[in-house]
Design brief:
The chain is built from nine helices and nine strands. By secondary structure, it is of the alpha/beta class. It has a single domain (4-246), classed as Protein of unknown function UPF0759 (TIM Barrel, Alpha-Beta Barrel), CATH 3.20.20.410. Helix 7 (203-218) crosses helix 9. The longest helix has 16 residues, at 203-218. The protein starts with a strand and ends in a 20-residue tail after the last helix.
Amino acid sequence: MTSELRLGTQGFAFDDWVGPFYPAGTPKSAFLEAYARHFSTVEIDSTFYGAPRRSVVESWARRTPDGFRFSAKFPRLITHDKKLDRAAGDAQAFVASMQSLEDKLGVLTLQFAYDFTPDQHNRLDDFLGGLPRGPRYAVEVRNRGWLKPDTGEMLSQHNVALVLQDLFYMPKLDWITADFTVIRWLGRRQDIESFDRIQIDRSEVLANWAERVRTFLDDGLEVWGYFNNHFAGHSPASVRQFAELLGYALRPEGGMENPSQASLGL
């Protein structure tokens, strides 16, 4: 089995990145194209606030090179407002829109709030079973009560990944529940003043994550990893730092490979 690693950021439309990451003078309308010259995947954050129109999704695909991948969060209407209750139609519509990316579709993540509690186990099980076949799906929980064997067993039955998160009040896990995994480096909002530079040294944390990721790759897994600006202050720099820790060399065309054939999307 060939392992694969893709790293990117959570979102790309940040004015603070103009200068430190995007060339000075880059208009917001050109951010995506500029981003795709550096990284081969991004997690779209705006989908959390509302399902995108198909025309918008198709434009993302047109504006990025072959091999680029988009991951995205399910709309909060589904995960936070309805908490999956009578949300199957909304989910079907969202997934259908995202599938217009075709082979540029990465992982679709259901991110739940703290108040989505383990007593909703059966509801989540039924919901996952009803999702359209084809896309990769992941679940991110913010309540420790979910971190029990029955959750892992349920996710494994659906080949759905449990998001491994770096969030200040959640444990850093290495659970694998699918043939791929998702890591989200989140941090804490109040620790960061702006998004134009690294403000917290996370070197030790990243070194620990690098050991986990090496193990995942050795086991033949796909690894999808996304950094938030709140993790250290400037997520593009965090991506590069993590790549260096893993010993991957940048290639100008935007791809990276190691001798074991694992690739890193930078």
